[in-house]
Design brief:
The structure is a homodimer of 179-residue chains. Chain A has four helices and twelve strands; from the N terminus they run H-E-E-E-E-E-H-E-H-H-E-E-E-E-E-E.
């Protein structure tokens, strides 16, 4: 399940060099603006969903994105067991559902909010997400505490008129965009 | 250099299922707002830099981020040879330098714009980036046409007062944030 450290890239894995504290790293990362996403899954291992900013496009050959997930997260086993997920990109007005899926609420209570349909690969699709990427897991790389879930995108659904919700400086911001 | 496809996650690698075209994927991805970053390197393989949105926090144990890079990109060999990079997160007013590093201009002409210093690991640091992450490459995962460069963050420098530059709907947007 591990990718191999790459000696040919002259990687210097000198743990002593890293003097950056978690706090310094997190403060710096708060200055990297991101979209806000609810990542969902459903299948034999159960329905689950959580709010995440660590989502990234990878390549369009094949259409692929990635999601970073802490292996100690309560939702981890559901994603592992189902091996499908949907990235629902949130828009203006989605702050409450973002907080709900980022908190400690039970899965049933999370999915009681919002209108959900089922994607082609089986995961819950939030009907008013500004875009949803319905995916199958294709590859995993472990990095420290987290797994990078690399996913092939099976289908997308897009609302062209939606405004983007951005998280920056530990606050939500609604982009005002003319469509 | 490859991570292993994970059979235990019930991964279904059925290429026939993907009916999504590149155009559909790219149009959908244009709806995922991102920060705008200039990724730089310097060392034995030469100085290089390019504009990228595919940057993502991974974990704070150890402090790590990732950058996705097309293996056919002109800058690829420089990043491969140096095995260090800096993620310079752009702010309001950085649209011109973003376009410069996203175009076909020579490396010397790119770095003639902006004020640069040298990070601890050796890469160019843009002095007025809203945050810069000075990194060493620690792990690589190939996905389709791209490499995911997983990097350990050695040091950061942060400007606390800067406004964020966001790319969404194929346009730049400046977040108006009270600091």
């Amino acid at each position: 399940m591990h990718s191999t450290p790459v000696a040919t890239w002259n990687v210097v894995d000198n743990a002593d060099e890293v003097v950056l504290t978690k706090t310094d790293f997190r403060n710096a990362m708060s200055r990297l603006g991101t979209a806000v996403n609810i990542i969902t899954t459903n299948g034999p291992a159960g329905r689950a969903g959580f709010t995440a900013s660590a989502v990234c496009s990878v390549t369009d050959e094949p259409p692929s994105l990635l999601v970073c997930l802490n292996r100690s997260a309560s939702v981890y086993e559901a994603f592992k067991g189902n091996a499908v997920l949907c990235v629902n990109v949130l828009g203006a007005g989605h702050q409450d559902i973002s907080n709900l899926f980022g908190g400690k609420t039970s899965m049933d209570d999370r999915f009681a909010v919002g209108n959900w349909s089922q994607g082609q690969a089986g995961s819950p699709v939030l009907d008013d997400a500004i875009v949803s990427f319905d995916c199958r897991l294709s590859q995993i790389t472990e990095v420290g505490t987290h797994d990078i879930l690399i996913c092939k995108v099976v289908s997308v659904s897009t609302r062209l008129e939606g405004q983007s919700l951005i998280y920056f400086n530990r606050q939500y911001h609604e982009l005002q965009v003319e469509n």
